Protein: Aspartyl/glutamyl-tRNA(Asn/Gln) amidotransferase subunit B
Organism: Actinomyces lilanjuaniae
Amino acid sequence: MSDPLMDFDEAVRRYDPVLGLEVHVELGTETKMFDAAPNVFGAQPNTMVTPTSVGLPGALPQVNARGVEYAIRIGLALGCQIARSSRFARKNYFYPDLSKNFQTSQSDEPIAYDGAVEVELPDGTLFTVPVERAHMEEDAGKSTHVGGADGRIEGARYSLVDYNRAGVPLVEIVTRPIEGAGERAPEVAAAYVRTLRDVFRALGVSEARMELGNVRADVNVSLRESPDAPLGVRTETKNVNTFRGIEQCVRYEIRRQAAVLAAGGNVVQETRHGQADGTTRAGRVKSDADDYRYFPEPDLVPVVPSREWVEEIRASLPEMPALRRRRLRQEWALSDTEMRDVVNAGAVDLIEATVHSGTSGQAARKWWMGELSRVAKETDTSLEELPVTPGQVAQLQKLVDSGRLTDKLARQVLEGVLAGEGDPETVATARGLEVVSDDSALLEAVNAALEAHPDVVEKIRGGKVQAAGAIVGAVMKATRGQADAKRVRELVMERAQG
C-alpha cells in the first residue's frame, strides 16, 4: 500500500523542513581499524579476517595510527576542532554481521567537533551546513539474504555473513540540525554529501566510490509548522548511497510527513529504507531512548594527538575542492554557468589535465563539454571512460592552433582517436585530413570552381564581393573541407578580379 503524499510545493509552503545527515566514509587504509587484517574490497568472503576482526575471545584490538591521521585530516578539512583527547567506546547491540555483539565507536568523546561545510547548489547558491562531530568507528560485516526479493531478509530461505568488511575503519560525520533550506532541502542534502565526497577524494583518505558503499548517508527529515516552532519528529532513512537517492529520499519524506500531519496524524520516529523508485518504506520504530549501553572500551587507551602532529597534518592539507574550482574558473576564464556545467559533468580533472598538457582552459572545455560529452551521452558512458586522454585532446587542439586542422577536420580526427586508430597526429596523417595550404593545389580547385560558376565571377567583378562565398564553398566541398578557407577566399578574389 502506497503512502498518502502531499504536493511538494504545498508541503514546503505549509511546513518548514529540517534535515540531519550522518555520512559514513570508509577509509582507504592498508589494514583495518583495530587489527592487521588487510582492508581489501572484493576478496573472497571471510578471507580478510583475523581473530580480532570477528571478536574471538582473547583477541585484543590495536588502533590504526593511519586511521587516526585520516580522521584528523577530515576533521580539519571540515573546519572542526580536534580534541586534545578522545576515546573509543563499546556500542552494544546484536546483529549477525557484528559477531562480537558490540561496535567499537566513539560516543561522547569524538576526535573532531564543531565544524561547518559550505556547499554550492547547482545554480551557484552557497549554503552552510553545521557539523556537530566527526568520530572514528569500525564497519560491520555484510549479510546476504538468499531467496528473498531483491536480496531482502523478508522471505529469505537463509542468510550468509561475510566478515571481510568487519573492522574496516570508518569516520562518521554528523551534522547539527540543518535549518532554513526550505524548498531547496533536497538539493542541499545531495550537495552536502557531494561536497564531502569531493573532500574525501581531495584528502586522499578514501576512494569515496558511492557505488561500492565507500560513502553512504543516513538521512534524517522532520517537519515543523514554522521556523520558530520546536523541531518535529524525525525519520531516518538508512544507508543511501547515491546523490539522486538522497535528493529523492528528502523530497519523498517531506511529502509523506506533510500528508500525515495535514490529516491530523503523528509522524512515527523510525528508521526507513530507500527504494529504487525514490520512495521510502518503514523499518523499525526508533526512539531517542535506545540504550546501546555505551561504556569506554577497556582494551584501548585514549587517543591524544599532539598539537605539533595536528598542525603538521593541517599544513599538509591540499587545496579544498571548492577553492580549487574557483581558482580554475578564473584561470580558465569561464563564466559561473560554464564552470557549474563543467563540475556537474565531472570534467574538472580532465580539463585541468588537458590544460597541463599544453592548451587553454577554453579550448579544453570546448572539447570535453562539446564533442566528447556528446559521444559519452550517445554511448551511455562517463567522460573518464572514453578512450581518449587529456594529452591527446591537447594534441588535437595544437593541430587546430597551428592551422593544420580546422575544427571540422579535428572532429573527424577525434572520431578516429576514439575508434582506436592512434593519436591525433597519426589519425590526421593516415586519413589524409590535414588542411591543404599549398597554393598550387588550391589554385587548381579555385580555377575549376570559377570556370563552373561564370555568373558568380561576373557578380564579384561587379562589386558583389559577398558572392565569393559560393566559390569558396565549392572549393571547400571539392577539397573535402581540407582547404584553408581564408586562403581560398584570397585566391578567389585575386583570380576573379584579375
The first strand starts at residue 16 and ends at 26.
